[in-house]
Amino acid sequence: MNQFLARPPRAVTEHFSPLAAELTWHQASEGFSGAIVWRGDDATGVPLVALKGWPPDASAERVQQIHYWMSQAARLPFVPSVFAGTHGHTAVFADGRLWDACRWVPGAPLIQPTEANIRSACEAVAHLHRCWPLASNRKPCRGVANRIDVLTAHRRQLSDWNRDTPPVEPALDPLLRRAVSVVARNTDAAITALRPWASRPLLSRPCLRDLRGEHIFFRTGMVTGVIDFGAMIIDHPAIDLARFLGDFSALRESVFSEGLNAYRACGGVLDVPDEFVQLLARTGFVCSLLGWLVRLVVRHEPTVRATAIAARLAHLLACAERITHF
Question: Which GO MF terms are attached to this record (predicted)?
Fold first, then answer.
């Protein structure tokens, strides 16, 4: 957490007054995007509002587009409502970044979801996707192109790292060495498997893109919240399903059939076979590990949150080290 902030900036709470005026603020756990989130509780301790400070490079146009997509899905009870502040504006600039305010959704993510939980989550994703219109023209999946670009961009560095991985942090170094091995072993096969899809026209619509397991909240078996819309783009819906289902593939391989059957049964449109979703999930593990190697070894990003980074790396490795084919 950012120890230099005792509460959200005054300009932000004033912008969203009277909604934010009488709340008690607690800084929420940080992710890895560079965003800051505060939880606003009422006098009885019930969380009501999430104040989000977007990463400093997020533009007003980008935030407004995401707010528009969220408004299209606002009829769904698990989608956070976006609140308007002064003069009806849903974002305000303060302390070097844009801020917005959304309804705090109840519940918590599940570490080991049951088959019924997986089905419920994918039904929720189907309802969410159906709120957004399909693009008029088919186009290649951006997620495929992004994966190929990432994997090809760092081949030479991978070769160097495979011989001698530079030290970063004692708690992370063993995990990073394993990551280098996994990525080096799978890069060529991943690119080969992705290439046939690189130019294939497919349907597209707004997608969350970062629909990790920890971003779907449950309470008593029901989906009560979907959070973190900040990475949204227009792409193929399979990228959301691959990210979510891939997070639990280390539990059992059947999560893909469980989830995709539920998604289709609930009206979700997929013009691809299940194997494409699995391909995106498996290549996504490899690219995510490579992304962490770039962040920590090349860019030398701070490792003050080494425990959280280690947990993320360990999870990715648990999934990626099971890969036998793409």
Answer: kinase activity
- Domain definitions of the chain by residue range: 10-103, 115-141+187-320
User: Which residues have CB under 8 Å from 292's CB, separation 6+?
Assistant: 176, 179, 309, 312, 313, 316
Residues 154 and 148: beta-carbon distance below 8 Å: no
Q: How many CA atoms lie within 13 A of 204 on its CB side?
A: 18
Residues with Cβ within 8 Å of 111's Cβ and at least 6 positions away in sequence, in order, are none
Pick from 125, 127, 130: which is nearest to 216 by CA?
125
Query: What digits encode the pLDDT tens for the residues 2-31?
Result: 545 678 999 999 999 998 888 999 999 877
> How many of the other CB atoms lie within 10 Å of CB of 128?
25
Q: Residue range 199-218: average pLDDT?
A: 96
CA distance 237 to 270: 7
- Tokens matching residue 211: 């629909």
What CA–CA distance (Å, rounded) separates 226 from 224? Answer: 7
Q: How far apart are CA 225 and CA 108, in angstroms?
A: 8
pTM as predicted: 0.93
Secondary structure of residue 25 in the 3-state scheme: strand
Query: Do the domains 10-103 and 115-141+187-320 sit in the same CATH topology, yes or no?
Result: no
Question: Class for domain 10-103, per CATH?
Answer: alpha beta
- Closest-CA residue to 268 (of 123, 167, 134, 158): 123
Is the omega angle on the peptide bond into residue 302 within 30 degrees of 0, that is, cis? no
In the numeric block, the tokens 């096969």 are attached to 189
Q: What is the pLDDT of residues 288-304, one digit of tens each?
A: 999 999 999 989 988 88
The top-level CATH class assigned to 115-141+187-320 is alpha beta
CA atoms within 13 A on the CB side of 245: 34
